[in-house]
Amino acid sequence: MSIFRNLLPLTKASRAQEEQNGEQEQLPTPSQYPQEAALQATVLGLAALSEAHPAAVLAPGAVGRVTPTSPWPCSLPWLGPILGQEGPPGAEDPRALLLAALRSPGLRALEAGTATELLDVFSRLEAAGEELVEAIAAGDSGAPLPGRAAEVRTALEQGPRGLAPRLWPQLQVVVTLDAGGQAEAVAALGALWCHGLAFFSPAYSTSGGLLALHPWSDQPQGVYLLPPGTPFVELLPTRDGAQEDDTRTLLLAEAQRGKEYELVLTDHASLTRCCLGDIVQVVGTHNQCPVVRFVDRLGQALSVRGEVTSERLFSEALGRAVAQWPGAKLLDHCCVDSGVLDSSEGSALHYEVFLELRGLRNLSEENRYKLDLCLQDASPHYKSLRFRGSVGPAQVHLVAHGAFRALRAALATGLSSSAPTAMPRVLKHRRLAQLLQRKLLS
């Protein structure tokens, strides 16, 4: 290991292409996942899911996928026909997938690439519900089903809370691939459309394409196993969300329970040791492998005056602020340094915060300011800068439904694959920030 570290010094994830193209950093395509790791994650995930929900996985025709992307890292062509999952005609068309699922009242498992994609599916369903109901009744993509069309219309008329169990009374579990920035979507789905359903993720896909596994049926979601093998993973100790001065990495078996580490990945093709920016907390062990929870992403920190407001700190402060807004449910959010938008207009630099909420279409200035107060409570450094006037109060903007769906579509433009992507919480390029600006409600 000493020779390995000396020959391959640590590097940061390259931002050269991001800066050149004006794009946010993206997850790799599935072809970049090591095949062995992808197959392992898929088979172990299927085994765990079938143990927890055997009727939802093993019964033919019980699974409905509603997004072009799949939550399973590895495609298993032999599995679809066995389980009656050949797919509807036009299976890469989101509308065709959703329509096929709506025509099948006996679904027991719902699959989507990521939780944010599933959130988009339910938003689309509410917006185009009547058109889809008419298509079911008229026999679009199959025989006319007027009775089923009436059931779908009735379910939609009762509102978003518990919509999925009403549409599919036998539904047990929602399966999505976990990635960065998905926690808010999972919380929103669990509180509204998928209320009362179990969630399952077979793996965690990081910014470097690493697959951490979830091979258990009895462990809580959000807990993953870091396995040995390809790709080669090391752990870099961190303190208070930042790297320690000592850059000596640890092997998986050397991880200590309760400690936090940044993942370091060695690309076997280019032999580059890269710090991914993904922070994990060790919560246990499985044999000699660490069991971890992904807690932060260093690349998603805000800083306008040298302060570092991490993704974790900001999300916690935002959650406390939203809890003080009566009736509000947070669906999604993004932040922008005011310098990116040139919105300071001679005043102090500040955070621009874009929110998509359910149950609230306007906020008083007093309620908007509660986010800034929560940030000050969470970060003494931020509070000091606010007291001195070096940083202005965070500006909160509400965007229309569908704004973040449009943002994700813009982020996916130019990708060679429709692979599930991490959701950015800090936008670094004006073009993307202006897309949300054009969708403002207030």
3D architecture notes:
By secondary structure, the protein is an alpha/beta fold. The chain folds into three domains: 175 residues, no CATH class; 74 residues, no CATH class; 137 residues. The chain has 17 helices and 18 strands. Strands 1, 9, 10, 11, 12, 13 and 14 form a seven-stranded mixed β-sheet that branches. Strands 2-3-4-6 form a four-stranded parallel β-sheet. A hairpin with a 5-residue loop joins strand 7 and strand 8. The longest helix has 18 residues. It is globular. About 4% of the residues have low confidence.
Instruction: Determine the number of helices (DSSP H or I, runs of at least 4 residues).
Output: 17
Tertiary shape: globular
The chain-level mean pLDDT equals 87
Distance between the termini: 55 Å
Catalogue the unreliable spans. 15-22, 24-31
The computed structural class is alpha/beta
Strand content: 15-25%
Sheet having the most strands: 7 strands, mixed
Total strands = 18
Radius of gyration: 22 Å
